[in-house]
Amino acid sequence: DLGFDPGPVDGVFGTLTTQAVWAFEKLVLGTPRTDATGSVSPERWDRLRGDVRISPRRSTNGQANHTEVYLPEQVLIVFHKDRPALISHMSSGEIDENGEPAEYCETATYDTDAQGRELDEPVTKQVCALAKTPGGVFTYDRQVEGKRVSPLGGMWNPVYFNYGIAVHGAENVPNEPASHGCVRLPMHISNYFQDLVGIGER
């Protein structure tokens, strides 16, 4: 009811539930990301069932849909006219021991260029870059169904907002920044994320 998505009702307190609890801890309880446990104590259960209101940091006065990405908390929220339609744990660009974007180098076969455009033929090459998720205000400009592999890595159902950087599904969405710059979401959420957002939305 609050907008968090722990996955299907299956009777298992598994990874998807843990990720949803991480988001609740970080966003509602103000737990630092590094201290989030993913567990639900009786006190947390009472808080979860209490009066919880989540408002955007950049209100549209109920006029538009938009997405907010909170990098320190590693949480993403899709707001529909300032009401949360989805709240999700996410993982952004990896940082080094100094808190700066980490450098990565890898050799892979890409079907998308650095701008997120599909290539005529896949290309195998080595790429070195910084894993930076940019701050600022952007708009969604493209979305692609299915898998794409770009110099930023593999992406499931990407929705692009800054050249080749996208919000997309990934198998690995740890409780820390770990991507090459994109905003990773759990796979089950990426399967419907494109239906929640629109091209041109901030």
Summarize the structure.
The chain is α+β, with helices and mostly antiparallel strands.
Number of strands: 10
- Largest sheet report: 5 strands, mixed
Between the first and last Cα atoms, what is the distance in angstroms? 24 Å
- Report the average pLDDT across residues: 93
Note the total helix count: 3
- Residue stretches low in confidence (pLDDT < 50, at least 5 long) are none
Helical residues, percent: 10-25%
Give me the secondary-structure category.
alpha+beta
Apparent shape: globular
Description of the structure:
The model has no long low-confidence stretch (mean pLDDT 93). This protein has 202 residues and is an alpha+beta fold. 15% of the residues lie in helices and 34% in strands. The longest helix is centred in the first third of the chain and has 13 residues. Strands 6, 7, 8, 9 and 10 form a five-stranded mixed sheet that branches. The chain has a three-stranded antiparallel sheet with strand order 1-2-3. Strands 4-5 form a two-stranded antiparallel ribbon. It is built from three helices and ten strands, in the order H-H-E-E-E-E-E-E-E-E-E-E-H.
Q: What layout of secondary structure does this protein have?
A:
Blueprint: H1 15-27, H2 42-48, E1 65-70, E2 75-80, E3 83-89, E4 103-112, E5 118-130, E6 142-143, E7 147-150, E8 153-162, E9 165-170, E10 183-186, H3 187-196
Parallel strand pairs: 9-10
Antiparallel strand pairs: 1-2, 2-3, 4-5, 6-8, 7-8, 8-9
